[in-house]
Write a structure and sequence with these properties.
Elements (H helix, E strand, L loop, with lengths): L1 E6 L5 H13 L4 E5 L2 H6 L1 H13 L3 E5 L14 H5 L4 E3 L5 E5 L4 H16 L4 E5 L23 H11 L9 H24 L3 E6 L12 H5 L6 E4 L3 H4 L4 H19 L2 E7 L7 H16 L4 E5 L15 H12 L2
Parallel strand pairs: 1-2, 1-10, 2-3, 3-6, 6-7, 7-8, 8-9, 9-10
Antiparallel strand pairs: 4-5
Helix pairs in contact: 1-3, 5-7, 10-11, 11-12
The structure holds zinc ion.
Length: 332
């Protein structure tokens, strides 16, 4: 089984190599390097060195569009949004939100360029992390409850081309389907570039199947010609109700079922950030990791290495203990 963690924040290859050697000693065989807009702009060759150092050590290497356009997960800013304010997602009420629109030609070209750069780093896998449309309530308390995205001019134009009718003002099933189609089409275009470059594609969806985020029907994604691995991140601290184990089990069943139906690999992410220092935390880390291994998933990762010790805004209260619990569970 692939045993990995996400890695970030260090851009001096000498320091990274020390960490990589330790992560090998700790039993990992896979690593995800975050590749933000900042990394692409300022650290491209450095990142290629970091990926090479990881490949040299036998890791399966992943890179992801960390916070790119703010439509993927990650603690990173987006310069694109500052440069192209009119290519942001637009609420039906007219206000622009803090994320790029998947139908913006400028954003698509920007992400095509990011993708070519990412493949050029020579990773094994490009990891499309939590691609999503925004939910208006994340940003605007003032907006009406039935506000929705995106009704920008690009979306209106594509909607009209597709349905030969104006885009409605009230959200309906066709609008939701259009959002899903748009996101799947966007991912397919980028994943095709990855395949042409000789790398594989992983897509990670949040465990909520809420169509507002974009992809309600995971089978549509899993049946893409370009996807190789289906992933989800059952972060119990964010999404679970009282029954964490059932919540995690549902996520495991979901990706293993899809992987077996569509001949993909499966992956589960273990929460390693924002966790309180209490017994239940370490039990959940252990049982999630063990359940994934025993449930037959092909790959288990923690977000992120060392319990996110170095990102103070999301670090766990006792990150070292979170990390040790994960390593313990991996070793059986
Ligand atoms: Zn739009």
């Amino acid at each position: 089984m692939e045993q990995g963690a996400s890695y970030f924040g260090v851009r001096d290859p000498r320091h990274v190599e020390e960490d990589l050697d330790r992560l090998v000693d700790e039993g990992l065989n896979a690593i995800l390097h975050t590749y933000s807009e900042r990394d692409q702009t300022f650290y491209e060759e450095t990142m290629a060195d970091i990926v090479a150092a990881s490949n040299d050590r036998g890791f399966t290497t992943y890179v992801n569009p960390w916070g790119v356009g703010k439509v993927f997960g990650g603690e990173a800013f987006s310069q694109f949004l500052g440069k192209y304010p009119n290519d942001r997602q637009q609420l039906v009420t007219g206000s622009r939100e803090h994320a790029a629109c998947f139908n913006s030609p400028a954003f698509r070209e920007f992400v095509r360029e990011w993708t070519r750069s990412a493949v050029g780093l020579d990773p094994d896998v490009v990891f499309w992390d939590e691609p999503h449309w925004i939910l208006p309530e994340w940003f605007d308390d003032d907006e009406p409850d039935d506000a929705w995205v995106c009704r920008c001019e690009h979306c209106q134009r594509r909607y009209r081309e597709k349905y030969d009718a104006p885009m409605p003002v009230t959200e309906d099933a066709t609008v939701r389907r259009f959002r899903e189609d748009t996101l799947l089409d966007f991912l397919d275009e980028m994943m095709a570039i990855v395949h042409e470059g000789g790398a594989e594609n992983a897509v990670c969806l949040v465990p909520e199947s809420d169509a507002d985020h974009g992809i309600a029907d995971w089978a549509r994604l899993a049946s893409s010609d370009y996807i190789d691995l289906i992933s989800t991140d059952p972060y119990w601290g964010l999404f679970a109700g009282d029954d964490v184990e059932a919540f995690v089990r549902d996520a495991i069943d979901r990706v293993t079922d899809l992987a077996s139906t569509y001949d993909l690999r499966s992956q589960i992410w273990v929460q390693g950030f924002g966790l309180p220092d209490e017994t239940a935390t370490y039990d959940h880390v252990r049982t999630t990791t063990r359940s994934a291994a025993e449930g037959g998933v092909d790959s288990v990762f923690m977000w992120g290495y060392d319990g996110c010790r170095s990102i103070s805004s999301i670090a766990s209260e006792n990150p070292d203990r979170v990390w040790e619990s994960y390593l313990d569970a991996l070793s059986g």
